């Protein structure tokens, strides 16, 4: 996608705070490093893959591992576009869209690889691994395959761990998915090595089994990330960057609102826009009290000061809380006496 530089602005609500700009720049640099390293890996693995099903599966997985960093780099540009009348919530959802695109690529290609692996097992295909002459010596190609898989797996694990920390700071689920896949790359390398060694020992089925293990791993990554991406895009309750639990900011914001002197009840709807949250805080004032604009504005500012992700907050004063409009959560089920 081509973005005109004159359209890139600094909107009030949908930009990262200055303290996280350096973190974003680090993440962008790591993604470029990842793309460069994976590109070299694809070439090396493609050269030595031969007819090994496990090596071919590893090669395809390497190509798929380019999708998340490329999607992240594109999304990191799109989110800088200022909110406008056409996109009033800004463009941070580009992160979730990139997440879903990467997950779909993983699921589709993983499914195809599972089919190929099972077909190879049924047909009892026996992939030959030949010999290459290097410096006047005959060397079994399997040793080259094993060496390349072992060497290329280590940097990916390191890159994955580095990106995990940045994903947490940025609340970036696309970056987290990329980091989690890279961190687990050793599993693909190990399965491939076992499959190649199996062929060398005469176990023809070891190669297809290894390929099947790799393929199932790809499918699992695809399903896990599709669930997470769809949840965000469908305005489900905001969760942590790794989708391990509901995000505590919902509870924190509601607690702060309820502790405000003129508020009787409070309940929030918080949607995850990508990096930031859009918050709608519904408050019921104490009996016969009409809060001033200054009081509602102060409450809004207090909520936004809780965390940098709460940049876009609206406080709505209502007569009662409507359970259809703003359903109660487990934390505030007890206080939902009306509506």
UniProtKB/TrEMBL annotation:
Domain Cation efflux protein transmembrane: 40-233
Gene Ontology cellular-component annotations: membrane
Entry keyword set: Membrane, Transmembrane, Transmembrane helix, Transport
MF (Gene Ontology): monoatomic cation transmembrane transporter activity
Family annotation (InterPro entries): Cation_efflux_TM, Cation_efflux_TMD_sf, CDF_Transporter
Location of this chain's protein in the cell: Membrane
Annotated membrane topology: Multi-pass membrane protein
Cited Gene3D superfamilies: Cation efflux protein transmembrane domain
TM region(s), chain numbering: 30-51, 63-83, 95-115, 140-159, 186-206
UniProt protein name: Cation efflux protein transmembrane domain-containing protein
